[in-house]
Amino acid sequence: xxxxxxxxxxxxxxxxxxxxxxxxxxxxxxxxxxxxxxxxxxxxxxxxxxxxxxxxxxxxxxxxxxxxxxxxxxxxxxxxxxxxxxxxxxxxxxxxxxxxxxxxxxxxxxxxxxxxxxxxxxxxxxxxxxxxxxxxxxxxxxxxxxxxxxxxxxxxxxxx
Length: 160
What we know:
By secondary structure, the chain is an alpha/beta fold. The protein has helices at 3-6, 21-33, 42-55, 111-125, 128-136, 140-152, and strands at residues 12-16, 59-61, 64-65, 68-71, 78-88, 98-107. β2 and β3 (64-65) form a beta hairpin. This is PTS EIIA type-2 domain-containing protein.
């Protein structure tokens, strides 16, 4: 999987202002549907993201949510990132407002890609240093470079 293609620059929005989880998921779905080869609509992707949220909140704590899903109409993995200037209620178990949303959708037949991306993101974002790096990045290019680094070189389980 080409990580640069997974997170194109136009799918990385930093210092955005949205007032609700619903609005963030709408914008995220629009980004994920942006250049789908199958002509997928943002509405269809939004429904997939909402259905996943109904199964369980995708907020992982520390102000981060990773909405995601698999879809039979998606031809290749797609990712997007939205960083908010002010956090919103996402229903996180730690009750912290969410201000970093990393979403992705993968083809239904690629569960291994789904799990690899999800696991690597969750592990890196559990690190205070990695969280600080992505929250302080001043450009979409820097954010994407961090994502490429993390997803190309997942942390080792026995790193310490």
